[in-house]
Design a protein that fits this description.
With 450 residues, this protein is of the alpha+beta class. 34% of the residues lie in helices and 31% in strands. Strands 1, 5, 6, 7, 8, 9, 13, 14, 15 and 16 form a ten-stranded mixed sheet that branches. Strands 3-2-4-12-11-10 form a six-stranded mixed sheet, sandwiched between helices. A hairpin with a 5-residue loop joins strand 7 (277-283) and strand 8. The longest helix has 21 residues, at 63-83. The protein is globular, with a radius of gyration of 30 Å. The N and C termini lie far apart (107 Å).
Length: 450
């Protein structure tokens, strides 16, 4: 009996050991894939690999804001049609122009207000909804973190110290544009006021626009100055390497060339080609902002400018696809100064610029008119990225291997910097000569462009 009990205990002990021992199971396919992913992740961490240009989350833009941004795009092309008649390089900031005109609109009435609305392409959008959308955009610019870029946008307005503005005008400026009046002695000390306003623009643009108003542009009759400053600095998501930058030929015209540094890289970018036009999008770090380049065939710039429509811009953007591209782009620096009065008059705002202007919502009187609308812009593009700034202001006075596509920007082209979330255009430009200091050479008639 004792022997039997001993054998039973030994049997039970052996069974417990077997149950406690881990059973060797054949790994499933899902388990194998998970282990491979973890091993790959560990290797990337150990090697210090970076996910360059990590994309930002999509932004939910209200429908009313989308409508206003679409109208701003129309305004951009309307102004460019006026400015393209000028020769040479062009650079302007439609966003800043839209802001100061919208701020001015809060003080306009009657035919004057309708003229400003026409320039802004605001037909079909109520004044309140327009200002609400502009307020949303300002809040988005000033409070939303923009990964990989520095973006500063600010607006302000300065009023005559002895003036008595309407409370409703001050409230609208504060509510929608977060701007409070700064009182100045325009009548007694116009030059001191001019210096202080220029200092504000210099500070907001990080020194890129040191002096917007020239001497004498602010005088004793000045009663209101409305201003907007924009500063943008972004590094390329995929920088160009300096060792590949070479001095090459840029065709100013069919038989007129200069030598200028052209940057180069081969990489997958969003690219499209259509009817003698190449479109390329170069993203900045974070992929929220990008530069879109419109490169026509040699001699086709004028035809491209005539074809420009907001619907075509949207269509071209939709056609962009990731493709490996050989990219050659010149380094360039552009500076422009504009007086927009002729363009504004041509686009339908002549009443606000003359003696019949009605800005009675500002001070309760019809004794004010717009005398000056200035903008200075500057942009610098190199291997690292882009640095751009704009200062916009208006003055109100009293009435008295494989075969990959090649995107070689060695001829005039258009470009613009856009927010890929809201589709807002911050800067628009044209490059006809990236190096104005270079000597222009004439090619013999028999020589053809390679």
């Amino acid at each position: 009996m004792r022997v039997f009990a001993y054998l039973m205990c030994l049997s039970l002990a052996w069974t417990g050991v077997c149950e406690a021992a881990p059973s060797k199971q054949k790994p499933t396919e899902a388990t194998t894939k998970q282990k491979r992913r973890e091993v790959g992740k560990d290797r990337r961490v150990r090697s210090g690999q970076k996910s360059q240009g990590k994309k930002s989350k999509p932004l939910r833009v209200p429908r009313g804001v989308k409508r206003v941004v679409s109208r701003q795009q129309r305004m951009t092309l309307s102004f460019y049609r006026q400015l393209r008649r000028n020769k040479g390089n062009i650079l302007f900031a439609p966003h800043g122009l839209s802001v100061v005109l919208s701020m001015l609109r809060t003080g306009a009435r009657g035919v004057t207000a309708r003229g400003i609305k026409r320039v802004l392409h605001g037909r079909g959008i109520s004044t309140k909804r327009w200002h609400s959308a502009m307020g949303w955009l300002h809040k988005y610019r000033s409070t939303t973190p923009h990964k990989g870029v520095i973006l500063r946008s600010a607006q302000n307005f300065w009023m005559e110290h002895s003036g008595v503005p309407k409370v409703s005008f001050i409230r609208s400026m504060q509510r929608y544009y977060n701007a409070a009046p700064l009182l100045m002695h325009f009548h007694k000390q116009p030059e001191v006021a001019r210096t202080q306003i220029n200092d504000w623009f210099r500070l907001q643009t990080h020194g890129m626009i040191p002096s917007l108003f020239p001497k004498g542009s602010i005088d004793k009759r000045t009663r209101l100055v409305v201003g907007h400053a924009l500063f943008f600095q972004g590094s390329w998501a995929y920088p160009f390497k300096k060792k590949y930058t070479e001095l090459k030929t840029f065709f100013v015209a069919k038989r007129r060339v200069i030598s200028t540094p052209l940057m180069y890289q081969k990489r997958k970018f969003r690219y499209a080609a259509s009817r003698g036009l190449q479109i390329l999008e170069l993203p900045y770090a974070g992929h929220q902002f990008s530069m879109v380049l419109l490169l026509p065939r040699l001699g086709g710039l004028a035809r491209l400018e005539k074809r420009l429509r907001t619907s075509r811009l949207r269509r071209w953007i939709r056609r962009l696809r990731l493709k490996k591209v050989h990219v050659s782009l010149p380094r360039f620096t552009l500076t422009s100064t504009w007086n927009f009065l002729p363009a504004l008059a041509a686009l339908g705002m002549s009443r606000a610029l003359g003696r019949r202007a009605d800005f009675s919502k500002i001070n309760g009187k019809r004794n004010l008119y717009v005398s000056t609308v200035l903008q200075q812009t500057k942009i610098a593009v190199d291997e690292k990225g882009t640095k751009a700034s704009a200062a916009t202001a208006l003055v109100v006075r009293t009435k008295n291997g494989h075969s990959y596509p090649e995107f070689v920007a060695d001829r005039p082209f258009l470009f613009y910097i856009r927010d890929r979330q809201t589709h807002q255009i911050l800067f628009w430009g044209r490059v006809t000569n990236p190096n104005p200091k270079a000597k222009i050479r004439s090619l013999p008639k028999h020589r053809k462009r390679n």
